[in-house]
Structures are given as structure tokens and as C-alpha cells.
Design a protein that fits this description.
Helix content is 24%, strand content 28%. It starts with 5 loop residues before the first helix and ends with a strand. Strands 8-9-20-17-11-14 form a six-stranded mixed sheet. The protein has a four-stranded antiparallel sheet with strand order 1-5-4-6, sandwiched between helices. With 392 residues, the chain is an alpha+beta fold. The longest helix is centred in the middle third of the chain and has 14 residues. Helix 2 packs parallel to helix 3 and helix 3 packs parallel to helix 10. This is DUF4136 domain-containing protein.
Length: 392
Amino acid sequence: MQVSNGTELGQIVNDPQNYRDVRAPIQAAVEKIVAEKSDALLITDFEEWQNNAEVTGTAYLKIAFSKWLNDSNSISFFIADYKEGKVDKHVYFTVFTYGRSIGTSLIDKLRPKLVTLPKLDMATDAYLLSTDYPGAKTGGLFRDTNGKDEQSQNVLDLRPEYLNGLEQHKPFEYYPLGLNWATIDETRKDYVQQGQFHDLFRKLYIDLSNTDSYRYDKLEVKAYDITHDFEHYARSKEVKKHKPAIVKGANGEDKISDKETDLISLTCYNADGSVKPPFQYEATEPKSLDDAFVLNQNLLTNTTRTDSKKGEIGIAFSQQFAPDKVSGSLTKIVLTLREASVNTANPVLDKFRWINKNGVPNTGLYDSIKSTLEEVKPRDKTIYTYYIKTTE
């Protein structure tokens, strides 16, 4: 069905003639949407018929739903109740969102028009992130708020190259610091004696209020030394900028020109013009930094209890922290969702099963949703990343 405005949408909802005796191929329609990889609106009663028989007890949409959600997409159902004779039925305004909605997606346009209907959001990342930093170039890094000017407040020497990826809807920040970890630790200890420096990072907020599909109740922090991996990546990227001039040899083979003078080309490429293995980038397992940083769980718990839409994230130093535990110059701190639990107690789930006109329970859609949520349940999912560059 094509919908152009809110009034037309309301007319569709309230006219049961639009849903009666319509046997559209639902599974095929959903599979087509998933394959096309773009936002879509599907309006249907989700009554699937195959070989002239109603599908009532098979999770026939699990594969398509799982593929869509596994690719970091989401599905939002808005449910309108109606009667067909004496049979209670539902019509579902189903919005498929490709990628994460950023204010201009189809779901952002339709949600306000459908807000009065019961809804279910299916997504593995239904949380929202925001910040409340004191300035565009300060980030959430610890600062001396008693300082009289920018220089005296910037005690960890945050450099102008700081990046906030969240401004471009990317969940990361890059903090280049003009200090090493030993100096940072000394500074921290001095301020702790003054009752300050409880956390290295603050003022990142997470909205965990959407529990339609999951309860996100187990967050944790992991840290890694990625110095070697990044240097390898940067070296490989630089080598690609120095492709040698290739000519044909006496037997028609590719070879580096005898006139090639670029030392990087001559050092990093084989005689046939291919990159030598040491200069080819392959991601390596980063070194885990145990007992370095932890999540300030009390801060998150208390702020979420006050406002479930604004739980504050604090990245604190572990009690066992020591500068020599963070040996590299590029550190990656990751806020992760260790595990989520399917919210099987959500009463809206009951609206995805019904009794058909023959008195037979139809649980095909209900089973598809529940089994999908269980299968794609997020584990060890990265929520946010801090990259910290130090002088050593």
C-alpha cells in the first residue's frame, strides 16, 4: 500500500476492507525487502498462505528477520486492531530501517504518525548515545574545572587533533595527549588527593529505555594496546602510495622498471611489482590490557535509575592500574555490551499471535520474532570506542 500522509494512513487503519481476504505472499515480500537493502514500509496482517494452506505454526520469517538484524538493521512494528466478523485481527505497519536511523530515515518520518499505536522495535542496538561536553574540542576527558583558563583546565594536554566521531553518527572518539601514562598517573594521584579525577572520561550518556526486544543490563569495559597493529596498518597504507612503474620483461612478464628510483618502491615491492608480505596489512589480535580501566558501574546504575534515558558512562582507572601495564602509545578502550536478555515479558508480544476463523492458533509471526531475537541476541557487542594517543 502506498501512503502519502497521516490522514490517509488513518483511513487505512480504520478501514478493515483493506485487509479482508487478501492473500499476499508475505514471506516473498519480506525476503525482497531484505535483499534490496533499503528502508521499506510493509502493511500487512502477516497471514501467510502457501499451497492454499494458512501457515500457522512455523517461524517462516526467522531467516529473513535474522539476516536483516544481523546486518545492523532494525524492524519496527506498529499494530492496529480490527475485527473481521467475530474474529479479532491485527494489521501491522512494519517499517524496515536500513542501518541506524539518523533523523532522516523512513522510520523518523513515520513514527510520529503512528505514535498512538502499540509498537515493537526489533533491533540489537536500540540504545541511543549522546554527550554533554563543555566544548567542541574538550571531549569527556578529565579537566580541572577550577582552572582559570583553557590551558590550566587542560591538565592532560589534549591536543587540537581531537576527533569526536559521534558528530558524524560514528561511535568513537580520538584523544591525542601530550603526556605519557606515567605522567597521567601522577597527575591523577595529585587530583585524587583534592577530591577530583574520579574518572578518565565522563559525560557520555546512553539511553537504555527501549526494552521492546532486549534488556541491556551487562555493560563492561575492555582495553587494548593497538600500537603495533596501527603502525603495521599505517606502514602498509603508505607503501600503497609508492607503487613502482611496471614494464614488460624479455619474456612478457611484469617487472619493476629499471628506471624506478623510489626507495620505498624498491624496498617494499617484489621484482614483479607485488607487495612483499611484511608490508601487506593483516589485522592482528591486539594486546589485551587487563586491570587498566573499568566501567564506573555505580555512576551508570544511579544515573539510569534517575533517568533511564540518560545513564552516564564513566571510564575509571582500575584499582590495580600501573603505567607499565599500558606500554604502547596507542590505547583502545571499548565499552561493550557483554550480554542482553530477550524481554519475553513484553505484553506487546501477545499481539503477534491470534486465533484464526477456524479456531486455530496462528503463532507463525510470534515464533518468527521470538526465535529471531534469541538467535541474534547481542553478545560482546561494541557500543563505543575511545582511542588514546600518548607520547610513549
